[in-house]
Specification:
Blueprint: E1 5-10, H1 16-26, E2 30-32, E3 44-46, H2 48-67, E4 72-75, H3 83-88, H4 91-94, E5 96-101, E6 108-110, H5 111-117, H6 128-137, E7 156-159, E8 163-164, E9 177-178, H7 185-189, H8 191-198, E10 204-213, E11 228-238, H9 244-260, E12 268-272, E13 282-290, E14 293-302, H10 306-315, E15 321-322, E16 329-330, E17 333-340, H11 341-352, E18 353-358, E19 361-366, E20 377-381, H12 387-404, E21 407-409, H13 415-425, E22 429-433, E23 448-453, E24 459-463, H14 467-471
Parallel strand pairs: 4-10, 20-21, 20-22
Antiparallel strand pairs: 1-18, 2-3, 5-6, 5-7, 8-9, 10-11, 11-17, 12-13, 13-14, 14-17, 15-16, 18-19, 22-23, 23-24
Helix pairs in contact: 2-11
The structure holds adenosine-5'-triphosphate (ATP).
Residues 182, 214, 216, 225-226, 229, 231, 296-299, 338-340, 342-343 line the site of adenosine-5'-triphosphate.
Length: 472
């Protein structure tokens, strides 16, 4: 019997974050890192359903940024890099956040983010003295998020790079190696290799998904600010001064991609950076309306020739591009897109999360794009203690699994419970094999199955032979 759906939906509101965190744990999407040891701040593990959604996001991102483009190349660079890389990139000296500590309860705050909350923008290039002047001018407005007091230490620059050991780390004078503070450096380091091996003509792009680590002062908002993350980056190399038009096209392309994976346009907005670093020509963020409000999802940066110039200077290697048409040598300018997979994951979950009423009962449903859902379809025998039903259901399951791969077998509890469970993880269709399928009740329905739609709760009978086409 079809379930009646009542149009009374809601997206997560102010307590939406808690609902999402709870769903993630309950349904195997995301767990706190090292949970059985009491957890490790800012680190999360993706569970069985989460890794499917994460991999689907990466697959669609890769398709859009490599396969669907003619002039983009993929890359997977090693995490460890020569210590000088982080000097050249400015991370050892300048990759820091202003940290202050509450004198009452020792909570650490990021002063620039707290200033932002009271409407004051701190320039990224500010010295420690300058940021403290700004902090002092607004101390009365900034309260400790934990104890509510306003008694903070002065701000000091806190470097975000995570130090590590590699090889002969016991010798005196060995330079420290770092985990990557951002994944994109691997692209700059391999620019010359890609040019020499693939002979691309400028303009062209390199795409990479890679891990990054930051000693964030206050990891917060679940996957929004973590200490270990994955970033999906593209760097597009253009001729000097031929940046503007390409930059606009890239911005539009990234915006459209979010719509193509089902994100609602009203939950996205653009934000232009007010204080550009000296080399940048322009910088915009795509912000998403997370449960806590709009915040940065992806950065799109017009970076001039800064990155390659730095690496050429620090490495002493000529990384210039030679124009095959006229032999002209130059350092290309770079247009960058960079998004954290965790933030993307959270945006997709918040967008898909709905509570509504179907068949007279409340439900939570993830209205995920069908290409993103952990399972494309779930298959169930109406009753699990009827061998004929189970056998037929197993046949249908095997057929669908061969086609789609990620197909769930669900024979726990009654049909209603299975639907609720699949709704909660966003499975677009549930297929049930019943006595009609066997031709025992209505011979006209022999070899047909019930297919139930996640979003509407509607059920239709579909011949097994048409099932793959129907689901596609
Ligand atoms: P923020 O201002 O929020 O610290 P950022 O401007 O330093 O971010 P970038 O260095 O431009 O961020 O990194 C590119 C992308 O990587 C960001 O748009 C974001 O999606 C993601 N990202 C950055 N820091 C984190 C983090 N700590 N946890 C999760 N994702 C992150």
């Amino acid at each position: 019997m079809a379930e009646k759906k009542v149009e009374q939906e809601s997206r997560p509101d102010s307590n939406g974050m808690e609902k999402i965190v709870s769903l993630c744990k309950r349904r195997g999407f995301v767990f706190q890192g090292s949970e059985i040891y009491g957890g490790l701040a800012g680190i999360y593990d993706y569970g069985p359903n989460g890794v499917e959604l994460l991999n689907n996001l990466k697959r669609l991102w890769w398709k859009a940024n490599v396969y669907d483009k003619e002039n983009y190349y993929g890359l997977d660079s090693g995490m460890f890099k020569h210590p000088k890389v982080w000097e050249a990139s400015g991370h050892t000296s300048g990759f820091s956040d202003p940290l202050a500590e509450c004198r009452e309860c020792n909570t650490r705050i990021r002063v620039d983010k707290e200033l932002e909350k009271v409407g004051v923008t701190a320039d990224e290039k500010m010295s420690e003295t300058e940021i403290n002047q700004l902090f002092d001018a607004h101390r009365e407005e900034i309260k400790c998020p934990k104890c509510g007091q306003k008694n903070f230490t002065p701000a000091r620059a806190f470097n975000l790079l995570v130090k590590s050991n590699l090889g002969d780390f016991t010798s005196e004078g060995t330079e420290p190696v770092y985990l990557p503070g951002e994944a994109c450096q691997g692209i700059y380091l391999n620019f010359k290799n890609v040019v020499d091996s693939m002979n691309p003509k400028i303009p062209f792009g390199i795409a990479q998904i890679g891990k990054a680590f930051r000693n964030e002062i206050s990891p917060r908002n679940f996957l929004f600010r973590t200490r270990e993350m994955e970033q999906a980056d593209t760097q597009y190399f253009v001729k000097p001064n031929e940046n503007k038009e390409a930059y606009e096209l890239i911005k539009q392309d990234r915006w459209d991609w979010y719509l193509s994976i089902g994100i609602k346009e009203e939950n996205l907005r653009w934000k232009q950076h007010e204080n550009l670093v000296f080399y940048a020509k322009d910088a915009w963020d795509i912000e998403y309306n997370f449960p806590g409000g709009f915040d940065e999802l992806e950065g799109i940066h017009d970076r001039s020739d800064y990155d390659l110039t730095q690496h050429m200077e620090y490495s002493g290697t000529d990384v210039r591009y030679t124009d095959p048409d006229n032999g002209e040598k130059y350092i290309p300018w770079i247009l960058e897109t960079s998004v954290g997979l965790g933030r993307m994951f959270m945006a997709v979950l918040s967008d898909a999360y709905h509570e509504d009423e179907v068949g007279g009962s409340q439900r939570t449903v993830l209205k995920l794009h069908k290409e993103l859902a952990p399972y494309r379809v779930a298959v169930s025998p109406l009753l699990k203690n009827k061998p004929q039903l189970v056998e037929k259901a197993r046949e249908v399951f095997a057929m669908l699994k061969k086609e789609f791969g990620n197909v769930a077998w669900d024979d726990n509890g009654n049909v209603g419970k299975r639907y609720r469970r699949q709704d909660e993880i966003g499975t677009p269709h549930c297929v049930t094999i019943d006595f009609d399928t066997l031709g025992e009740e209505n011979p006209a329905n022999k070899d047909t199955v019930t297919v139930r739609d996640r979003d509407t709760g509607e059920q239709v009978r579909v011949p097994v032979t048409d099932l793959i086409g129907y689901i596609q």
